Amino acid sequence: MKKICIIILVLLSKLISAQGINDTSVFVPMASVSFSVQIPGGDMAKRFGVNSNIAGHFSIKTRSNWILCVEGYYLFGNSIKESGILDSLKSSNGEIINEYGEYANIILSERGFYIGANLGKIIPVWGPNLNSGIILSAGAGLLQHKIRFDVEGNNVPSLQGDYAKGYDRLTNGLAAKVFIGYLYLGKNKLKNFTAGFEFYQAWTKCRRDFNFDTRQKDNRQRNDLLYSFKIGWVVPFNTRTPDKFYTH
Hints:
- The relative contact order is 0.21.
- The two termini are 32 Å apart.
- Helix content is 8%, strand content 48%.
- It has two helices and eight strands, in the order H-E-H-E-E-E-E-E-E-E.
């Protein structure tokens, strides 16, 4: 009986030593890229329609499944709802004339960014290992957005250089965000992903000293909201088999 117990213990120790990221909770630095579709709300919905963003993230997952993350997002979209911004530049027939006396071709779009940090927790359910599962996280950072003017031929002096700043509605401020989603981490470093829903609330103001179209400074406090669906590709930097078996 004693020999059988020794054999069982030896076999168990070999099994445990062979376990890797599939069945242990490990320390993992990770880089990821993501794409999101965002629906604006609050004051942001009065200015923009649906937009997209691409982002880069660097995260550290601890053995206790906490995640620390720093991230940067680039926002872009083509739906501008705020009307009348360029009305003061239009002629009597409703067109903007370029420096050659021709009708100008101007495209308005949305540009912006978010930079911040967040803290999250993995709940290891519905996953192949203790490193995968539901993620709950919250964070804070800076949200900025503006209206971009693309002028074909760059031949409208009123929208060149610093003059464009009088119309672009540059806005930024403190933002808070929450995320609920799922993280999958397996043995294959190329087959790891995250997906979920993200919500932003930002308290922003226009940062331009003067808006040329309204002929005044905009001092209003804004409440900008974004509702997002995000998918991302994750690259873990260290998924080597740990020296010991760590329980979660």
